[in-house]
Design goal:
Number of domains: 3
Helix content: 40-55%
Radius of gyration: 46 Å
Strand content: 15-25%
Largest sheet: 5 strands, antiparallel
Number of helices: 8
Shape: rod-shaped
Strand order of the largest sheet: 2-1-5-4-3
């Protein structure tokens, strides 16, 4: 058998207490696990929001660079000034190099002179369109619009003569479809959707239940912390809404970007259950080690106390039955040896007394006679 000394047992007792403390810490972690996961998801949402802003600003800056290069082309200036028939071939040529998905040009009154697509139709008056109106006044503005059933990121800017006189406007458009949102979602590590009034555009990964639940309260949530919603399947979805603005040049007030991080409820439950079982086993082992260690020390000591009381009452024939394989066992063995010697000494003393009595008592008896 393995021999555990008192020092080893004290170390085992400390180990048991540490295991119990560890179990308590694990239970605390289990209680806070869901909250920690939510805080982590909130941090991921904030990071995704920054990524979205960065991507949109970069897309806007690239669109602005292309638009400025296009606006400074002498061929475009000449076409606006002299021959409008040259505008469409020129814009189609620019489209072929993927400068934009859709381009159109207007005169100084906002009338459409040429377009690379069916929208806007030739001759349509776009002077009241905010981006075109700003470009007619000499501004460069990014914005969003919904036409032909698609979402677009638009840039409108003026085309000037070398003298600075405005000849017309040019608009470059980038298509924002589900494929674009899917790429953005992958880049951000979050689901993405756009909501503009009753018009919605969602990343394909968005769950239908999340779409309906989020859209209803998105406008009210712009100034709030990330919100949590429940999905029909029992899962959870943490999401936040932010108004798409900013950029260089500034983006005109556009749609609401809806960012979401799915919280897998089953993972939370499984992890929480696993932590709970680990804590329970750790607590059980710690309690067993502590109770066994304390018992292995106190039981033989109590027995020794009872043995000493029994011997103290005069029963020198009593012997301790402690069989511990440690210092307490050695103490019990020494205790029995001491009692054995004490009893031997007592017996020898009794024998000597009896002998003395016999020797001393005989002369006394003879004198009396």
């Amino acid at each position: 058998m393995i021999r555990f000394g008192l020092r080893a047992k004290l170390l085992l007792l400390i180990l048991g207490l540490l295991l119990a403390l560890t179990a308590g810490a694990l239970l605390t972690v289990r209680h806070q696990f869901g909250q920690q996961l939510r805080r982590q998801a909130e941090r991921e949402l904030q990071a995704a929001s920054h990524v979205l802003s960065s991507v949109l600003e970069r897309s806007g800056a690239q669109l602005l660079d292309r638009g400025r290069i296009l606006a400074e082309l002498p061929s475009l200036q000449n076409a606006l000034l002299k021959d409008h028939k040259q505008l469409e071939p020129l814009l189609m040529e620019v489209k072929t190099i993927r400068a934009a998905n859709l381009l159109w040009a207007t005169d100084t009154q906002g009338k459409v002179l040429a377009s690379t697509g069916e929208y806007p139709p030739l001759g349509e008056d776009l002077s009241k369109q905010p981006l075109i109106s700003a470009a007619m006044s000499g501004g460069e503005t990014l914005g969003f619009d919904l036409f032909t059933g698609e979402w677009w990121l638009l840039l409108s800017l003026p085309v000037r003569k070398p003298s600075g006189e405005i000849l017309g406007t040019i608009t470059l458009s980038l298509l924002i479809g589900e494929a674009y949102l899917a790429r953005l979602s992958e880049l951000m590590g979050a689901e993405l959707g756009f909501l503009w009034g009753e018009n919605r555009l969602w990343s394909p990964q968005w769950h239908e239940g999340a779409r309906n639940s989020i859209a209803a309260g998105a406008f009210k949530s712009l100034a709030r912390p990330p919100q949590q919603i429940l999905l029909p399947q029992g899962g959870r979805f943490l999401w936040m809404a932010r108004l798409v603005t900013g950029g260089v040049p500034p983006i005109a007030a556009g749609p609401i970007a809806l960012l979401g991080i799915p919280l897998d409820e089953s993972v939370i439950q499984k992890t929480s259950r696993a932590i709970g079982w680990i804590a329970f086993l750790t607590l059980a082992i710690g309690a067993f080690v502590s109770v066994w260690t304390v018992g292995s020390i106190t039981r033989p000591l109590k027995t020794l106390v009872a043995d000493s009381q029994e011997i103290g009452s005069g029963n020198l024939a009593h012997r301790s039955q402690v069989q511990a394989r440690d210092e307490v066992g050695e103490l019990a063995s020494s205790f029995n040896q001491m009692v054995e010697r004490l009893q031997t000494s007592y017996n020898e003393l009794a024998t000597l007394n009896q002998t003395l009595e016999e020797r001393v008592g005989q002369p006394v008896q003879d004198d009396r006679e």
